[in-house]
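$ run holo --ligand "glutathione" --emit tokens
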Amino acid sequence: MIKAIGSLASRTFRVLWMLEELGLEYQWIDAAPQSNQARAYNPTGKVPALEVDGTVLTDSVAIMQFLADREGRLTYPAGSLERARQDGFTQFLNDELDAVLWTAARNSFVLPKDKRVPEIKPTLKWEFSRSVNELMRRMGDGPFLMGAEMTVPDILAAHCGNWAYAAKFPLENDAFNAYCTRMRRRDAYVRVKELARK
Ligand SMILES: N[C@@H](CCC(=O)N[C@@H](CS)C(=O)NCC(=O)O)C(=O)O
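-- output --
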């Protein structure tokens, strides 16, 4: 039995997207970050969490990679050169896109008011744009980051694209915008969006 814990407006979206891509059965618990419900699964109150056979897993990218590895889909096998390149994309996205967006969020509404440094935001936006350009250079002709095969970092990249749009980051790279649009047309993505209306 799989339970996915966390709200759609959080990184939980990625995990639900992966579950839908893989066609796995799961129960979704719509818990806001730092809610009592979230803390019942993860003492830090952070989401997403994934409960699998009674064990709670945390951290969206680790969860997505676990699910892909377990199913042997949307990933190259561990130990292959392709997997090393795939993991390179995943690390790059975590370091250069997710971390930048998260730093902006922390300095906008997550940290206590007296700890926030809003002046950092223009620098973060500049860094984000530079990293998106580099991501597209690394992708080449696509249609996915690794070429013909969709893998874990594609969900991460497209989710960061959505996050950037919501956070009013500039999205000026046409190739990245077209890539995100393609990803948002996937049936699994649309099914997760529909969860909001249920
Ligand atoms: N590395 C973690 C980050 C989890 C995280 O920080 N989630 C946010 C919501 S997207 C959260 O729960 N924030 C509440 C907090 O930091 O107190 C992941 O990828 O899941």
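-- notes --
Strands lie at 2-5, 27-29, 49-52, 55-58.
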